[in-house]
Design brief:
alpha+beta; eight-stranded mixed sheet; binds phenylalanine; binds zinc ion; aminopeptidase; EC 3.4.11.2; Peptidase_M1_pepN_C_sf
Length: 864
């Protein structure tokens, strides 16, 4: 189908197979910034060398600026030309010094790419293609250069001047200005460039590396936030020690700085020696941050720090290889977080977010392989597939190799590719070389999109000693990939005896590699119950014919905590699917299993809290041929109420057994709070008369945001009279704290109420709502988009609202707009009425004059 588009230029598709090495290299780069919010001058001095024997001119990428001057070897030239936004400079020799000068306006940069203003400070964001908005440069990750940076700026407004690498010198100038110079000794691609100029306070620390290098650490924030930086600083030190211990990776510069800014398109950025963070992943204290926020901060601090090796020392050859750094680094940060608390709970959380974000992506119109073959706008490929499925690929290789060989393989990779721009293939080849494993078929995971489905069934003849496990796999078609080949699926399997409730076998790692396979287990003397994909060893969907009784059995007796959780989830899912389809379901098995889990004295609170939570509306929808949001909601509410009512005594007990104590962020206390708040949620489902008062009292008395927000959520989902009072108190208390106000918007956008679409539309006109701040935009629009029932209100009000907002946001910040589009693209999953309404909004977006390439790509692909 040909889509009518409204772009100034037809979309250009970039293909992986078109990769060519750069025609010119840039071993040295000197940048001189005359910083000013309205007009910043950038003077770039590039030493360029011809790469190979060719007659190509030098091509420098630019975006939004024009050259004020171009010189070659010190002489102004005028035979340069612009091709599109590329500056093309003919050069005759093998080596030249090329200088350009441009002027840019940080305070008009609403895209938050390149050099921009945030909260009165200046900062940069260059990944993936933001550097070209600062100066002319071969803005591609395989051109590595050594950078020297000089900044001059008004000293009163911008007392702090930071850039990558090490500080060299500073000085004062006339007119209240000052300067600073920084050098980064490590060659890096332009996307890792960063500078910050601002009025910032610092929380300093030190870390001594295992070879004795003392590193000066600094977390830079506005002065008022300084007290909220200890957790991030602590997490940074833990990360540095962890990477030495677990991967043998040591930090390599004398300073490591982190700057927090309020306006940021993503979570954070791993610029060499100068990470720039969305403030939501730095700032925390008990009063303003939840346990979940604390976890997120530690994970993102670790993630960006780990990029120093997996991303910076070894970068990506081209953006198709993005998962080389992102998948591996997510895997590394998951391992770090697992080591800080309960590894089982961390695995459950990671799988839950994989299923919430990546599985639907892989089942929809934006599905793409972990190593894509084509893109229009690279910003659209910072996806759950590249990040989270990418991490699962690394995890599977680690499982196949085993810990020792995996570590040998990562050592080999870091050693061999240090200082280079590498490919996913390079990584896999190291995995093979260090272990002797043959990963030829495994490589399909990088090229084939879609979530594999595995069907599993087990046969056993009563009285016999042999069990037969039949496995079959199917990889569904995805856009551009109608047929698939079987992949290698590492499945951890164990059999349990239905009568004795003991293991009948050891855990076995099965590498399913054919379309169908049959496996035989001997010595199986009683009816076996199948525990499969233990630890979620493969990112697949398992379809098995296990009965409710067998799932309940596993939820009580499996020795793998993830498998226990999974059995409970499957039992709940089966029940909810039946409820959604038939309008009613038998809840007894779920209620008994939840009771059993609550009663088990050997389980820790954090695990119990995860295990007894119902799957989300959206995940239930993913199991159905067509999503019926109202039927799913009714089924889920009915089950929630039944669990609440029938186990009310246990919920009261669980609630009281974890009394509020002064806030400490630790795995144990976090787990207790979590279980207590899950209990509150189930109590609220009972409609017991005192629950609103209980929630309001918790809201009022809490000394921490975890308990306060949980109570607020409970109240906001209901309609007790305390509801509005809590919202108003929360607003008044945090009116000047942007990160907490985001929670105020988000809680209302996620509310499970009939009026949520109307409330959200009203909130978009609230004085504190702004599309210019990505966190705020996401807190309302992004949260609403994942509220399945509210967003899919049958009259299409939710769709219209989202499209209106995205069209407006696209004018300011295309990247953030495009990120929020996917809920509209799920139209194939809904009834004809909803699908038509969703398509109409997508068509309206695509036909909007002046649309960005970002939003165009997402919306047009969603229509196909
Ligand atoms: N590379 C960053 C990370 O993984 C993400 C990012 C991408 C940030 C693009 C900004 C822009 O953490
Ligand atoms: Zn990353």
């Amino acid at each position: 189908m040909d889509i009518q588009h409204s772009l100034a230029q037809p979309p250009v598709v970039i293909l992986r197979e078109d990769y060519r090495p750069p025609a010119w290299l840039v071993p040295e780069t000197r940048l001189v910034f005359d910083l000013d919010a309205h007009a910043t001058r950038v003077h770039a001095i590039l030493s360029v060398t011809r790469n190979g024997d060719h007659g190509e001119p030098l091509r420098l990428d630019g975006a939004g600026q024009t050259p004020l001057s171009v010189t070659v070897d010190g002489i102004a030239i005028d035979d340069w030309r612009l091709e599109g936004e590329q500056l093309v400079i003919p050069l005759s020799g093998g080596q030249h010094r090329v200088e350009t000068e441009v002027e840019i306006a940080p305070d008009r940069n609403t895209q938050l790419m390149g050099l921009y203003a945030s909260g009165g400070n200046l900062c940069t964001q260059c990944e993936a293609e933001g550097f070209r908005r600062i100066t002319y440069f071969p803005d591609r990750p395989d051109v590595l250069s050594r950078y020297a940076v000089r900044m001059t700026a008004d000293k009163a407004r911008y007392p702090v001047l930071l850039a990558n690498g090490d500080p060299i010198a500073t000085g004062d100038l006339d007119g209240g200005r000052h300067w600073a110079e920084w050098n980064d000794p490590f060659p890096k691609p332009s996307y890792l460039f960063a500078l910050v100029a601002g009025d910032l306070a610092v929380n300093r620390g030190t870390f001594t590396t295992r070879s004795g290098r003392e590193v000066a650490l600094g977390i830079w924030v506005r002065a008022a936030d300084l007290a909220k930086t200890d957790h991030a600083l602590h997490a940074l030190k833990l990360s540095m020690a962890w990477d030495e211990r677990v991967y043998g990776r040591e930090y390599d510069l004398d300073v490591f700085n982190i700057v927090a800014v309020d306006d940021f398109n993503f979570g954070a950025m791993e610029n060499k020696g100068l990470n720039i963070f969305n403030s939501r992943y730095i700032l925390a204290d008990a009063d303003t941050a939840t346990d979940h926020d604390y976890d997120g901060i530690a994970a993102v601090v670790a993630h960006e720090y780990f990029h120093n090796w997996s991303g910076n020392r070894i970068t990506c050859r081209d953006w198709f290889q993005l998962s080389l750094k992102e998948g591996f680094t997510v895997y590394r940060d998951q391992g770090f977080s697992a080591d800080q608390g309960s590894a089982a709970v961390k695995r459950i959380e990671d799988v839950r977010s994989l299923r919430a974000a990546q599985f639907p992506e892989d089942a929809g119109p934006l599905s793409h392989p972990v190593r894509p073959d084509a893109y229009q706008e690279i910003s659209n490929f910072y996806t759950a597939t590249i990040y989270n499925k990418g991490a699962e690929l690394i995890r599977m290789m680690a499982t196949i190799l085993g810990p020792a060989a995996f570590r040998a393989a990562t050592d080999l990779y870091f050693d061999r590719f240090d200082g280079t721009a590498a490919t996913c293939e390079d990584f896999v080849a190291c995995m093979e070389e260090a272990s002797g494993a043959d990963l030829s078929q495994f490589r399909l995971w990088y090229g084939q999109a879609g979530t594999p489905r595995v069907s599993a069934s087990i046969d056993h003849v009563a009285g016999g000693g042999r069990a037969t496990l039949r496995l079959a796999q199917r990889v569904p078609p995805t856009p551009g990939q109608p047929t698939k080949r079987p992949m290698v699926l590492p499945l951890k399997v164990r059999l349990f005896g239905a009568e004795t409730a003991t293991p009948l076998t050891d855990e076995r790692l099965i590498l399913l590699s054919d379309a169908d396979e049959t496996l035989v287990f001997e010595g199986v003397t009683e009816r076996p119950v199948l525990s499969i994909n233990r630890g979620f060893s493969a990112p697949v969907i398992v379809e098995s014919d296990r009965s409710a009784a067998d799932l309940a059995f596993l939820s009580a007796h499996d020795d793998d905590p993830f498998a226990r959780y999974e059995a409970m989830q499957q039992l709940m899912l089966d029940t909810l699917v039946a409820g959604a389809i038939e309008g009613r379901a038998d809840h007894d098995a779920v209620i008994a299993a939840v009771a059993h889990t609550l009663d088990d004295p050997d389980l820790d609170a954090a695990f119990v809290a995860e295990a007894v939570l119902l799957p989300s509306d959206a995940f239930v929808g993913d199991q159905l041929a067509l999503v019926d949001p109202d039927a799913i909601f009714r089924a889920r509410e009915a089950l929630r109420r039944d669990i609440g009512v029938q186990l009310q005594d246990r919920w009261r007990l669980a609630y009281d057994r974890a009394p509020a104590v002064p806030y400490v962020y630790s795995p144990t206390e976090k787990g207790k709070r979590r279980l207590r708040n899950v209990a509150l949620g189930y109590l609220a489902a009972t409609d017991a008369a005192d629950v609103a008062a209980l929630a309001f009292e918790q809201f009022r008395a809490a000394d921490n945001m975890t308990d306060r927000q949980a109570a607020l959520t409970t109240l906001v989902n209901g309609d007790a009279e305390e509801r509005q009072a809590a919202l108003d108190l929360f607003y008044a208390r945090y009116a000047d704290n942007a990160l907490v106000l985001d929670k105020w918007f988000q809680t209302q956008a996620l509310a499970t109420r009939d009026d949520t679409a109307a409330v959200v539309t009203r909130l978009a006109a609230h004085a504190d709502f702004s599309l210019a701040n990505p966190n705020r935009a996401r807190s309302l629009i992004g949260a609403f988009g994942v509220n399945q029932r509210a967003f899919h209100q049958a009259d299409g009000a939710g769709y219209r609202f989202l499209a209106d907002q995205l069209i407006a946001l696209d004018q300011l910040n295309p990247q953030t707009a495009a990120k929020l589009l996917p809920p509209l693209g799920r139209w194939r999953r809904f009834d004809q009425g909803r699908a038509a309404l969703m398509r109409a909004e997508l068509e309206r977006i695509v036909a909007t004059p002046g649309l960005s390439r970002d939003l165009f790509e997402q919306a047009s692909k969603s229509l196909e």
